[in-house]
Structures are given as structure tokens and as C-alpha cells.
Amino acid sequence: MAELTISGDTHPILKDDYASEWMGIEVVALDDGHATIRMTLRQEMLNGFGMAHGGMIFAFGDTAFALACNPASPEPGDEGTITVASGVDINFLKPAFRGQVLTAVANRRASTGRSGLYDIQIYAADPSTGMPAAELTAPAVPAATVPGELPTDIAPGELVAEFRGRSRTISKK
After folding, report:
1. Where are the chain's structural domains?
2. Which of 33, 78, 103, 172 could form a cystine bridge with 74, CB 3.0-4.6 A?
3. Buried b (16+ CB within 10 A) or exposed e, 133-152
4. Please, what CATH class does the domain formed by 12-171 belong to?
């Protein structure tokens, strides 16, 4: 289980991130080029069809992307820069519903100069079992031994969206 919910002590970009705070995002793991976060879908996050609003799924993936792109402790000399999205794509694969726990796993795929490429998988699981209600026989999650693997207490559930982000490091203004 993660040690705390959104806090500037976890990552400096979260200090004034009121959207992520409102969403109830919990930081599970952070590493260079990697972030794992989770949240529970609430009623006010649903669309008129009773499923997660696409904008909520997108915002959730975008937070994981931002955490993976920006180091929690910048290297000396990098304090004057931030990494932002230069473009993103999202593919919604399956719906997610109220009460499900979403987990986003963000990983850097490539980085050169000031540009980067990140993949973020977003999963939905039933909170009582950790697995999607329709697939309770899914295989167990592997132990987290390298960045990008989920901690052993996280059963991600069913893949509901794939988010690909392109990043660019720029000067702080």
C-alpha cells in the first residue's frame, strides 16, 4: 500500500495540483522515468452512460505521465526546467465503472535530448478482489523487482486504456 496520498513531499509537481488532489490520486511508486498511481472512480467522475468519463481517464493517465517525466529530485542544474506534454494519444479499450480502482503504470520508452516518449497503461479492478469482476481468474501480478512492474499488493485488473505521451523539457517561466 502506498504511504500517502497526493503531497508535495511525494513529488514537487503535486504540491499545487488541485485536480489530482480532487481526483483522490494515490502515488504508489516513483522512479526515474516511471510512476504508478491509483484512484477510485466516484459518481461525479462518470458520464451519462454510467461509466468513467473519458476526460477522467485521460486526466488520470496525464498525471502518471507528468510524474514519470519529471524527477522528484532534479539533478543539479536542472532545477530551472520542467517537462511537459508535446502531444498525447489515448485509446479507450473498455469501460470502467463507479467503485472500481484505477491503476496507471507509466514508463519511459525513449529519451533523447529534450524529448521523450512514454507509455501509460490504465487498468480497472474490482476493489474487493483486486481483479475485474468479469475476470476473477486472471493471472497473479509479478513481484515488483524492476521499474515499471507493479508492487506485489497491486492487482491491476483489466486494461481499459493505453495512453502514449510525447514530452519536451522546457525552461520554467
Report:
1. 12-171
2. 78
3. eeeeebeebeebeebbbbee
4. alpha beta
